[in-house]
Predict the 3D structure of the following.
Amino acid sequence: MSTKLGGEFCLVCGAEPPLYGDRMCEPCIRKRVKLVEVPENIPWIRCARCGIVEIQGKWVQIEEKEIWDELIQRHVQFHKDAENVGLGLETRTVSDRHTMLYLQVSGTVEGLAFTEEHTMRARMANGVCLTCTRRAGNYFEATVQLRSTGRKLSEDEYTALRATLDKVLEDMADDPMFFITSEGPVTGGYDIVLGSKGLARTWGRHLVKEYGGQVAESNTIAGRKDGVDVTRLTLLYRKPGYDIGDVLRWRDNFWRPASWTKEGAIMSRIDRQERTGASWRDLESANVATQMKDQAVVDLITQDASVGEFLDPSTWQMTSVRLPWDHEKKRQARVTRIEGEWLALHHLGCDDEDGAQS
Ligand SMILES: [Zn+2]
Ligand SMILES: [Zn+2]
């Protein structure tokens, strides 16, 4: 072997330049440098109940393809000087727990191009996520009681109210406590038991914004944990069972809600000209006599100063009714039947938009 004095040579085998890295020839550096370190087996955990995946101690909802990307990112170690790194992945499902990941990696180290092929086995273990653990233990923090004032709501109406919870859940950030422990109809309403007070309150605000009415909160102490009281929240939401234009029996008279206010409604009295603001609380004693959809708009066949006659749309019999205080001779009459008696209604702005009956 002829080595020129003072000349550069491979520190390992004495070969002549070109040399790379810590003064090694290409064959020597290739023997020593590994582009990536890949473990043979990598474990991961999937919740056996709901299917979400644990990534670095956090339970997350991710697609299968993303699981492999996550595992590679966490477990495949590239050489610290690697540049221009490329990675190709193919997977093969071996069993419902085992998946082979075939990696094709390329990159440069010390100016030399490397390509390597590796195989990893991803091994899934069953676990139970925090949410499912709590759910299984019937854990709950809050109960939301859906109720109504003014009239009983139909099953469809409760279904619609309940559906807004799904919407609220969709719009909120993922949280392991955002789950429903139990739910179902109860006498006079519907109850939903939730894992999170925050979720209950957010939904409550949503209901008020969407349907009016009000929410009342109460707390009970369920016990003590680590020296702190554990409280449970009961959130009672009362949806008004009435709408603008309905006829309500309230304070011994008939009224129609004319418009909503921030705290309730402007009520317009039927038997004489009178308007008053009422809060949701005031209106808790109100009962719906007829809804707008039960009212009819009829032509008056005869009329004098106080009484008009029309054909009862259900029997086609001539029927008389006391005319409303604001009656105009040329206007049709809006009538509604309450406990067998016809009542003519004064005019509200909402009547103009309600074309259905005329
Ligand atoms: Zn060498
Ligand atoms: Zn789970």
In short: The chain has a mean pLDDT of 90.
